[in-house]
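Journal club prep, notes for RB
We'll compare a predicted complex against what the paper describes. Inputs for the zinc ion case:
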Amino acid sequence: MNRIIIDNAAVATVDGAGTEHASGHVVIEDGRIAAVGAGSAPAPHDDVPTRRVDGEGCLATPGLVNTHHHLYQWATRGMACDQTLFEWLVALYPVWAHLDAETLGAAVRGGLGWLALTGCTTSADHHYVFPRGMRDELLDAEIAAVRDIGVRFHLARGSMDRGQSHGGLPPDHLVENLDEILTSTQDAIARYHDPSFASMLRVAVAPCSPFSVSTELLRDAAVLARDNGVRLHTHLCESLDEDRFCAETHGCSPVDYMDSLGWLGDDVWFAHAVHLRPEDVKRLGATGTGVAHCPSSNARLGTGMAPSRSMLDARVPVGLGVDGSASQEASMLADELRQSLYTARQVGGPHAMSARQALAMGTIGGARVLGREAEIGSLEVGKLADVALWRIDGLGHAGIADPVAALVIGPPAPLALLTVNGRPIVEDGELLTADAAALARESRAAHRRITRRADQ
Ligand code: ZN
C-alpha cells in the first residue's frame, strides 16, 4: 500500500453537487481516492509510506478525459492547413497510406505524451488507417506506445470499406473489406479489451464515417459491439458536405441514417455532432447517445460549431475531444475547456456555457461518454485516482481569484502533478514516463519518414 496526500490546494471535485473547496485536500491510497475535503488532510496513524504534496497555489481537479483523437495524425501535423474537411482528407489519405508500425508508435508516444502534459488522464483514440494489410502489428505498436506513456486508454478500432470506386471518399487502396474488418475487430476485443473497474485499456468498435464505410459495415459493427458488450463510435454530422452525401446517397439525414442501423443508444458516441436539427438533439438525449465535442478542430476546418448548450439541455452526454492532430495541431485538452466555452457562447450567447460547465464536460462529461462515470471523471471517494494538480500561481494566472476561472479561461496551466490510478505521470511540468525531448526527436523523424515515402 502507498499513499499520496495533496494538501493546501483549491479543489474542484466536479461531483454531482459541484463541491469545491477554497483550500482542501485529496488523499490517494492504492490507486483510489481515499479522501477529499476542506482544510488539511487528517494525519495518518499508520506506517503506510506516505508522500505529501504541497498544493499551495494549485487547483486539484479530476484528470481530463479526451473522447476523440486520431493519434497517428501526430506524424502529419501542419499539412493542408487551409482546406475544407473533404479537401483536407483527400490531400492526406495518400500520405496516411504510408503509415507503418514504427511511425504509428512514434506518433502515439508523442501525441499521448503531449496530452498528458496538458492534463489528460484518459484518452480515446479512433484508429481507422490499416494500409497494406497491416492490422495486428499496427495495433500492437499503438498499445505498446500507450503503455509507455501510462494514460488510461480506449482504443476505438476504426475501419473504412467504402473506397472511391464504391462512392466513398478514401482511395480504394486505403480501405479494407468487410470480413477482414469484422474479424480483426473481434480479435482486437479479445486481445485488448479489459472491462474491469480499474481498466487501463478498453476497445470500442468504430467504423470511420458515413462517407467512408458501407451500410453493411455499420449494421454489422453494431451487432459485433453489442455481442461483445463494448461501445460504438464514429464521426457524425461533422460538415455540411457529409449532410449532402447522406441526402444524395441514402436520402436522409446522418442521424436518421444511423438510427435506421441501430446506432442510437447509451453505448454509442459520435464525434462532432455539429450539424444537428433540433429533433436530432432531442433524439440523442432521449437515447443517451453521447457526443465528443471537438471545438478547436471544428474551428480549424471551419465546419461549424456544435450546439453544445442545446445538447446539454437535452441531457445528451457531452465530452470534449481534441480530435486528430492533423486537424488540430495544438492537441491540448486543457485548451478545449476554453474553446468549448467560447464556441458555446458564440452559438448561444453569453450565458450558454459557464466555466464550471466547461470543466464538467472535460471531466465527468467525458467519463459518461466513455461509459466510465462510476470510475473516473470526478474527485470522489472510491473512484480511481486520476487527478490533475494545476499550478495557477504563475504570471499567466496572476490576479485571477477564482481558481476554476483561472484554469478554464486563463492560459493552459502547467501541471504540478498528474496521476493515473494514483501513479504520477507528470510532475512539475515534466513527463515522468518518457523523455519529452526524445519524443520530439522521434516525432520529427516519423513526420519525415511518412512524408518522404508519400513524395516518392
Ligand atoms: Zn475525428
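Talking point for the session: The domain at 64-369 is CATH 3.20.20.140 (TIM Barrel).
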